[in-house]
Amino acid sequence: MLRIFHNTTFDFIRWWRWAAGLTAAFIAIGLASFAVNPGLNRSIEFTGGTLMQLQFAQPPRAADVRGALESAGVTGAEIQQFGSSREYTVRVQDQRQVALQAAGAEGVARTIRAALERRFAPGSFTVVRTEAVGPRVGEELTRGAIIAILVSSLITLIYLAFRFEWRFGLAAVLSSAHDVLVTLAFIKLMHLEISLTVVAGILTLLGYSLNDTIIIFDRVREDLRKGRSEPLQATLNRAINETLPRSVLTHVTTFLATLALLIFAGEVIRPFAWVMSFGIFVATFSSIYVAGPLLLWIEHKWPRGNSASNRAARPPQSREPRARQGSAAANALPTTR
């Protein structure tokens, strides 16, 4: 049987400052990008609007498509090539056009189709898919996505507080919050469209990251129960090294699956594949270099008195000096004959 990274003794926690600087710099770059291009690239599922994917018989010019729409009164449309040179997406998210969705979700789509048929003749293109979302639905989906992320974090914190204790749960949830921030910075820098599929990818990333962190924390708890007289940092390093073979095999196989989606699944699912591929790396990074140092900081900030972890963190007290003192005192006593 092939054994990878067996019986390793890497000092992972030693490099936590470098890791913290790296992740802070990446998040800062992502936040700085908002100054250049404010806002996230939200899909019509959150902003409301109309999306049409078109496949033409002959490759058209984007300017011709835009001109046809503007002649029909559809202004502010975003026209992008989608895959091949014959496929385009038309996204209408102008506030005036979005307001029309409240009167009829398919009204704008019919207007776009009629305008293109006048310009390119009927039968010269095929409507592959149409998505039309009203403004009220977009607001509800936005609110629901935020609530889903917050509720999942709260439930995780409660579960870990009962499963381990609140210090472990707090470290795991803060580590997951780091994963979300880094992933949002990645989405911003890559200009990925945030759709319900991407939100599902973020929630999947949260579960994946927490699973890896829980496995390491569970090993930490087992090692603490063994009563080893060692600092908590050494216990964390041992737990990470003991779970390293399992982590490497799991992450590599999962990454290969998401890589296949990224390459072969097509444009619709590609943002989800990007988020998952990047998320696997972030989850691995945070479970080692974020969750562990956070647990150390929490233990230092709120010590647990005579708990197992603090006993392990204290240096052992040898009984040999007491024995020597006792024997010396016995020799000092006068002897009677």
UniProtKB/TrEMBL annotation:
The chain crosses the membrane at residues 15-36, 144-162, 248-266, 272-298. InterPro entries: SecD/SecF_arch_bac, SecD/SecF_bac, SecD/SecF_CS, SecD_SecF_C, SecD_SecF_C_bact, SecF_bac. One of its GO terms (cellular component) is plasma membrane. The keyword Transport applies. It comes from the Bacteria. Residues 122-300 form the Protein export membrane protein SecD/SecF C-terminal domain. Keywords: Cell membrane, Membrane, Protein transport, Translocation, Transmembrane, Transmembrane helix, Transport. One of its GO terms (molecular function) is protein-transporting ATPase activity. It is a multi-pass membrane protein. It holds the Pfam family Sec_GG. It is found in: Cell membrane. Residues 307-337 are annotated as: Disordered. SUPFAM superfamilies: Multidrug efflux transporter AcrB transmembrane domain. GO terms for biological process: intracellular protein transmembrane transport; protein targeting; protein transport by the Sec complex. Belongs to the SecD/SecF family. SecF subfamily. Forms a complex with SecD. Part of the essential Sec protein translocation apparatus which comprises SecA, SecYEG and auxiliary proteins SecDF. Other proteins may also be involved. PANTHER family: PROTEIN TRANSLOCASE SUBUNIT SECF, PROTEIN-EXPORT MEMBRANE PROTEIN SEC. Part of the Sec protein translocase complex. Interacts with the SecYEG preprotein conducting channel. SecDF uses the proton motive force (PMF) to complete protein translocation after the ATP-dependent function of SecA. This is Protein-export membrane protein SecF. It comes from uncultured Solirubrobacteraceae bacterium. The gene is secF.
